[in-house]
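Task: fold both queries, return tokens.
Query 1:
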Amino acid sequence: MESLAVPVLILLAVVAGVTLAYRAARKRRTADDAARPQPSVSAKELARAAADRLSEDQHRRLYALIAQDQGLAAIKLYHEVTGDGVRASRDAVGALTAHPQPCRSQAPQQVAEQDEDQPTRFPYRYRAIASKGDVTREVSSNMLNDEIYGRIRTLARNGETEAAANALTRHSDISITQAREFIALLDD
């Protein structure tokens, strides 16, 4: 019986040591979490504030990068434009991605004097999605709406793919190659 007493005492000492270490680590983690500053604004408010700091052109370029799934480039652009830190820029772009914001232009647009070659910029972003099989493409632009996208789809379905691609390029920030890929998914 005495031969078992020493190993049992050692086992009890190890269990007690592990328990104390676990409790100390948990207390330290809780204290660190309490000391870490909690975000004071919601993601929606952060997105609204971030969008307000951008000009119309910067807003358009940033959302073009987001639509093309180029998050790092969008963070870099926001960082360069605003001068915010990288973490703040990452948080702002994340909020803008999760909660898309319309561009709040500083000067009202003059719709009456616009040229027909110049597309109208709407105060909201329109998302057009085309897919065929496993391939999906998305175009996000504040120069598109249901009417314009409907005309582009009609052109594509009537076999006028080049005219549809040119119209899509004119009303968004994508290249002609990307527009052709998008249009190829539309014609059934």
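Query 1 returned. Query 2:
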Amino acid sequence: MKSITFLSVFFICIISFAQDQKTSTTYFLVRHAEKDLSDPKNRNPKLTEEGVLRAHNWAKTLKDTKIDMVFSTDYFRTKETAKPIADSQNLEVKLYDPRNLYNEDFQQQTKGKTVVIVGHSNTTPTFANKIIGNDKYASIDEKIYGKLFIISIKDDKIADIVLNID
């Protein structure tokens, strides 16, 4: 896997600096890492070795960012992707319902925090769209696992970017 580009590092540093103010909310959204596709009937597969490596790389990518909360759907592949991030920050992985994204309770719980959300090829862009209030992002291709959605909210201003990290 290639290392992060300078732009990625710069943007993450800006987000981290903004969080020192504790007046903004930042969301990092990723799709779960590579899953085991050997059994097409298994609706809840675990990560492959490559997926485990990617999950640990997500933790390395975010290691210099103070994360307050880590969320995952209740599937092996998402929880296994979220766990190294949470462990690196001494946090527990909290579960969220992908059928009820960015509801009022979630907004209140995460306000002023830096949050990582691990989801799926369809729920991750949908979650990002709910946060920004716009249908900007389409589902992620099933072969792509390296997209990092970053959304920052300060007052009523929302900034968003998607980085490809492979």
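Both queries returned. Flag for query 2: The CA atoms of residues 16 and 87 lie 19 Å apart.
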